[in-house]
UniProtKB/TrEMBL annotation:
GO MF, any single term: transmembrane transporter activity
InterPro entries for the chain: GPCR_Rhodpsn_7TM, Na/solute_symporter
Compartment(s) of residence: Membrane
Organism: Elysia marginata
Taxonomic placement: Eukaryota, Metazoa, Spiralia, Lophotrochozoa, Mollusca
The name this protein goes by in its record: G-protein coupled receptors family 1 profile domain-containing protein
Bilayer-crossing regions: 7-26, 32-57, 64-89, 95-112, 142-162, 168-188, 195-217, 223-246, 253-276
Amino acid sequence: MFNPAGITLISVVVVVIRVVVVVIVLTVVVVLVVVVVVVVVVVVVVVAVVITVVVVVIVLKVVVVLVVVVVVVVVVVVVVLVVVVAIVVVVITKIIIIIIIIIIIIIIYNYGSSSSGSGSTSTTTTNNNSIGSSSRSSNRRVVVVVVVVVVVVVVVVVVVVIVVIVVVVVVVVVVVVVVVVVVVVVVVGVIRVVVVVIVLTVVVVLVVVVVVVVVVVVVVVVVVVLVVVVAIVVVVITKIIIIIIIIIIYNYVVVVVVVVVVVVVVVVVVVVVIVVEVEEGG
């Protein structure tokens, strides 16, 4: 038997089932997309952190190597300078000592020749003796003055050389300390920058992940709402269409029945009229 209500119910059930299936599929797809996005973001963050740490380690190693090289070079330069200055001091001292010895020998030789010359003749006068004694005393003064001057010069040279060595060593030490301090400051600055970059990267990645998840959830909600609304609209439209079809079908059946009844009535009337006429004519 024809049951329009059954057809309407079946149509609604079919539409609801389709809507549920579509919503489930969309939800699964969205969840998978969110999972993939989160995994990709986490992998990117991990890779970025690892790369940053590796770069920091490499920078630290390079800085340490540079500091060691600088210190070694400075120490070598200091040692070389000290050795060179010491050699120069020794050479200058030897030269000065040799000059002193030569001067003393020359003075002694002149003094000896003066003495022997004054004592070789017995006919020397008193004036000659006084001249000889004065020349000997003057020679002694010259020797003393020369020795004192040479000693003072040697002492001054040695003091100057020692002062130069001390100044060079102090300057080198100060330079080394300054270089090491600068390197340490640079390293600390680089490490701070790297840490800030890592923190900012992690924060940005987390913000991106949160934004992506929120967007995906909003999209899922919007899609589900749209699907439900569309399903409701489809169900309503389907019901309206089915009702219209039912009305049309009912109207069509009524018209057909009326026509059939009219036709039957007309046929019956015609047959009755014909039968009556035939009977009257006979």
